Amino acid sequence: MKKLLFTVLFLPLFSFGQTALRTDIDQSATQIESKVIEWRRDFHKYPELGNQEVRTAKIVADHLRSLGMEVTEGVAVTGVVGVLKGGKPGPMVGLRADMDALPVTERNDLPFKSVNTAVYNGQETGVMHACGHDTHVAILMGVAEVLAGMKDQLSGSVKFIFQPAEEGVYDVDMAGAELMVKEGVMEDVDAIFGLHIWSQIEAGKIGYRSGPFMAAVDNFKITVKGTQAHGAAPWSSVDPIVTSSQIVMGLQTILSRNVNITAAPAVVTVGAIKGGIRNNIIPEEVDMIGTIRTFGDEQQELVHRRIREVATHISESAGATADVRIGIGYPATINPPDLTSRVLISLEAAAGKENIIAMDPITGAEDFSFFQREKPGFFFFLGGMKPGGDPVTTPSHHTPDFFIDESGLIIGVKSLSYLVVDYLEMKK
Ligand SMILES: [Zn+2]
Ligand SMILES: [Zn+2]
């Protein structure tokens, strides 16, 4: 029954108009492929950290202007937004690319190896597009050119959102996407699409997931306060080290005993624990910091509540106190199932049905979720691994050996362009 309904609902997608638009996209995407690769290599050679993407933003803004778009610069510090008005009335689709690089020193031997350095957290470091955001910018510039070339046939508008600081910025609380939303970028947008290049998926393939896809990330700090004493007389102390050890073990039960792991996974990791100064002194205080990954508001609320309860009650039982602070980071990236089932047709057409992979949830986070909280949004992964490569041994994102096979970039241009025209045709 469901399948029949699906067929009836989406048959109009395969209109003659749309087939013609897809043929136009295929042609321009092939023509533009070498330019996209050139742009990508240029951004790769001159990467910029979050909220410092000045050179990148200028190249983007000049390009969008040359295509006849209305362009706004300096959005959310260094972001660029361009609007392409179609020849016919219709909704506004948003497309997003993040522009920032990371404080990583590149080890790849490439003609376009990064030459930039910076000071990060008081430390001199190389700067590298070690998450592949250079490919996102180049692909979206390509999409802008492809769609600008056929704007008269578009039944609606496209907003090109080039976002700074997806990776977060040292000492700044707000991610680029969150600030863009605060500045009103999503107000006139009806739906938004975005992609992430992925070094563990073969070039030519696309990965996606319906529903919760990437985790929400939050951090916590627990300070356990006891009573200091001589290490030789522990009975006169309230020992925060023993209490903290119990808390670390207690936190493990949140995932094994409280979270319904058949519905969605979750993570609570204590990443650092600090207390004491000498072998024979029981200190007064211990600090613990850690990260939390969850998939959805209800699960997030449960995990936060249990962290507070476990830390406070274990401390109480020892005669100590616990101060628990939870910092809220990025929400979960959730692809609405109805939108996902609709856009899948576009992805299959762009990459070939056999090249679409349904993925497991990812415990990494993505600030695209801030856009998704405003309007329906779909986020997917674009393959960037050498075909035939081994995902286990291929260097992962954020490492000095991170590498992208550029043969998949054209699939990125095609898939985002298809998503736009298919969405606009469907809403006609
Ligand atoms: Zn990253
Ligand atoms: Zn990234």
TrEMBL record:
Extract the PANTHER family matched here: METALLOPEPTIDASE, PUTATIVE (AFU_ORTHOLOGUE AFUA_6G09600)-RELATED (PTHR11014:SF63), PEPTIDASE M20 FAMILY MEMBER (PTHR11014)
- Signal peptide span: 1-20
Provide this UniProt record's keywords sorted from A to Z. Hydrolase, Signal
Q: What is this protein called?
A: Amidohydrolase
What Pfam family is a match, any one? Peptidase_M20
Residue ranges constituting the Peptidase M20 dimerisation domain according to the UniProt record? 219-313
Specify the species: Algoriphagus namhaensis
Name the source's superkingdom. Bacteria
